[in-house]
Amino acid sequence: MSLLVYIILILAAAAIWQLVRVVELSGKLKGVDPNRVTESDNRMQGRLMILMYFGLLIFCLWNFFAYKDKLLPVSASEHGVELDWLMEFNMYIIAVVAIVTNFLLFYMAYKYYGRDGGRATFYPHNNKLEMIWTGIPAVVLFIIIFFGITLWNDATSPAAKGTRVVELYSMQFNWKARYGGEDNTLGKSNYLLIDGVNELGVDSTDSKAADDVIVKDTLVLPVGEEVDFRFRSRDVIHSAYFPHFRAQMNCVPGMETYFHFKPTITTAKMREITKNPEFNYVLLCNKICGAAHYNMQMPIRIVEKAEYQKWMEATKASGSNGNPYYAKK
Amino acid sequence: MAAETHLHSDLHAQSLEHDAHAQHDHHDDHEHQESFISKYVFSMDHKVISRQFLITAVIMACLAMVMSIVFRLQLAWPGEKFAFINWVMGDKWGKDGILDQNAYLALVTIHGTIMVFMVLTGGLSGTFSNLLIPYQIGARDMASGFMNMLSYWFFFLSSLLMTVSLFVESGAASGGWTVYPPLSALEKAMPGSGVGMTLWLVSMSLFIVSSLLGGLNYIITVLNFRAKGLKMTRLPLTIWAFFVTAILGVLSFPVLFSAALLLIFDRSFGTSFYLSDIYIGGEALTQTGGSPVLFEHLFWFLGHPEVYIIILPALGLTSEIISVNARKPIFGYRAMITSILAIGFLSFIVWGHHMYITGMNPFLGSVFVFTTLLIAIPSAVKAFNYITTLWKGNIQFTPAMLFAIGLVSTFITGGVTGIILADSALDINLHDTYFVVAHFHIVMGVSAILGMLAGVYHWFPKLFLRKMNKNLGYLHFWLTFISAYGVFFPMHFLGLAGVPRRYYENSAFPMFDNLQDLNVLITVFAILGALAQVIFLFNFFYSIFRGPKSEQNPWNANTLEWTTPMANIHGNWPGPLPEVHRWPYDYSKPGTEKDFIPQTVPLKEGEVDGGGH
Q1: What kind of architecture, by CATH, is found in domain B40-229?
Q2: Cβ–Cβ below 8 Å for A101 and B470
């Protein structure tokens, strides 16, 4: 089978070569330079240009309509709703710019294809025009920046005091979550304390560590409550990516990074919205971290407050999945 | 050229080793004793060196392109066996026709490295700065032919080493072309971070040396060796672009070198520039106090100017090609120069937009949002100026012109998605997804490559004294252009849907299941695009040997390179150097019969030079 493919490829190459020779030689016979660009070439290429524009436009629109409902569902976080608005706002602007400027480009190429005996118009500059198309983009971009920086500020300012603290600890190739416990404070950690049992290197001499709850299998959170995530990494840079919540933050060995958001839609509700009874939120790793980077995940469940409390009590009681649970009481 | 009295001012203007021979201006280089080695291998002639850069870059591009097909096959049809994969990757990395996971990461890493550095920097700047700077400024050669020769051979060694690194047992560097530590610092983190990464670092160090040697040469030559009458405001935009690009390179590549050097220290000498609090392979490493974010700053301090080092030459070539083929002056010559300078300057203060979610201070992020959106303005001005150059032109659609127009289209399309990514708030959900991959491929992998191809088609007569086949050129363009949009436009949707980069496959996440046909669509277009390049390769190599001999000025252009004879002469002009009397863009000037006036033609009584304001 592959021999056939090679033979076909070689024959195709030979055919093209011969075609080229034929055109060259027939050009020589006619005394015409086959490589000279003629008016007919220009007309044809001009037409192909405008055809390409419309073909491209159709292709892009088709892409958009075919896939716009296969993207992410509605934002499951509070700040994410505003980010989605900002995205749509920006997308409209850039779509208009790209569609219009590309049209002008391809249209000019089509309209002004070179005619024999034609002559271009000598028009070297127009400073007023330059001012206009420097000024208008500048104004539009400033508006974009204004909204962007405002929303970025809101999203990245430190969480309010008393926000539920959850640490996400990343390593090759899984995630573990550590809840702050009753005192809502994470106990200190030290990488030198890491061993088979103390996987997060929690410093058990720190009294704040006593009530920390470590969970390996699923991150469970109550809906409608802000969470102050702290990120650490054991080995290399990972990235905590929560696409449904419009949240992402690198996990860097040697430092603690943070990001906070408020989940607003429970898993059950999102299953209804997406009409997918198997839907689950998930945490992905989004910074290349090694061979299994593509499968470093942790499921996330957003539940009603009552269910969350029940789950937390059960987790504390069972020390589920053999996790070290430092509740001394 | 007519035999003229040799003007001594030439000798004073240029102080090159060739100059002693320039006295014998009626002869070419037969008097200059050269062996095969000194003439064709370790040549110090800018024209030979530019061809060397081009051929090396073309070969490296083919290698990197084949790699991309391998990993695109894996992405579109994960788990499917492909004889092609086994053929390329061998039994170790492509056993049973399935790509190994570590090898996948190595492929994307080396693909990126080769394309960004060897092809788009070496192949664009190296080829065209070398070819065009001495030609277009009316110089015999570069300021230092020796440094220039070294610049190529360091480039060659760098490329060779990068290629060799693919064959080491533990695999090539695999931490992405951005090679962030600790992943790239620790062999225990991934096998490619062993010998493969060491070779990557050595190769890149050699590449940086090559770039610096070249860049210094270009700057000095442009500043000091311009022909009589060629003031800076009469320079073709190609030269402005190469000049500013060289400055960017000279200022930013050393920072990458420092990043690489510190990484070498962390890898081999126990230092902790980038490493702290790491537990890996069952042991706690002793390093503390360092930060990977330091590497990211140092890397991107080069990394961002690097993308402008890539696109500015392509834009410069496009300015020339569009103007010549539209038979009109480039619109807004001064504004174009200002844009190049603005882009050059701003490119140094935007690097943080690659780092919004690294954990750096969010306020710093805001600063970079501001500066990044500023840089969109001169870029937009350039795009509008290109379009206005076409308006009321008399467009000659050579293959080069098609590629140049294609560059403008993809520069616009790719540029606007950059505006989305520049917005840190929007980057939160798009960082490291396929939206980023789509963006940078459209501006670099398409736009800049189209520029390089435009340059090859347009200056082929100067490179190889022949012309490339026009019809094959047309076919090559349309297949490439269509495939390029076909590959990279749909990719944006993968990113918007949250699909991360550098994932071996997407099947670990059910949320991506309904997007798999996008991956297939992309791969199909990628294969088509790759096959289209075969047409180019055939045309390119065939025309070098059997292409029709070209006339001296096949495109009726004004710039100085078209006044040299159709032979490779040491010293470029057999007689005295040309004198320049006007700017390069007198196309279709009213009051002239021909629709072009070369720069060497003196101004008539009362004629105003078009470049003045």
Answers
A1: Up-down Bundle (1.20)
A2: no
